Amino acid sequence: FGEAVDIESESMKPMDEKHGMYNNGTGLYIYDYATKESELYCNWLDCSISSSSVSSFGMLSDGNLAVYIQGWNNRTGEPYADVAIIKEISKEEAGNIKTIDVACMWLDSDVESVIIDFNKKNSDYRITVTQYDDYEDEASHEDMVNKFTTDIASNTDIDVVFFQDYSQVVN
Questions:
Q1: pLDDT at 31 (0 to 100)
Q2: Cβ-based neighbour number of residue 66 at 10 Å
């Protein structure tokens, strides 16, 4: 069969002889078997896909990514299933879209759904989110909180700070 390879995730799917891809919950990562390093390929929320709805994915022969999504609509309670085709585009192709930059420790599925609906319905504005409680990062929770509070105080690109619960404000 060939040489055994250590993998980053149980959900690793082969791309080619040198790379695999896996879902870490917030996005899709490309894993280099030789260097054992991962690189973010796409963030699900940036693609208007709920992170909890990603069921399966695969690279198509044309280089686009197919993502099978399924779940429950939080507002109607109805089940849904769909296939999203993700194509990488340049900034020029995207046009002159204004971004609303949101900083938060984490998002729940209800807030994620509101952001996805907003982004799908607006062609002039797009909400982008930086979540500081990153499952991919090996930093301690305290380090993530420190980075979050430092960025809130000093990063002028942040338009909105979202606190999931009152304890984040107190701490």
A1: 92
A2: 13
DSSP code of 119? H
Beta bridge partners of 43: 27
Quickly tell me which residue has 């979540």 as its tokens: 131
String of DSSP letters for 37-94: EEEEEEETGGGT--GGGEEEEEE-TTS-EEEEEEEE-TTT--EEEEEEEE----HHHH
Contacts 24+ apart (CB under 8 A), 91-99: 97/123, 97/124, 97/125, 97/126, 98/124, 98/125, 98/126, 99/125, 99/126, 99/127, 99/128
- pTM value? 0.76
Q: DSSP readout, 90-114?
A: -HHHH-S-EEEEEEES---HHHHHH
Could you give the CA distance from residue 35 to residue 110 in angstroms, rounded to a whole number? 37
| Token code pair at residue 126 | 């797009």
Q: 132: burial class by Cβ within 10 Å (0-12, 13-18, 19+)? A: buried
Counting as low any pLDDT under 70, the low residues of the chain are 1-10, 134-139, 165-171
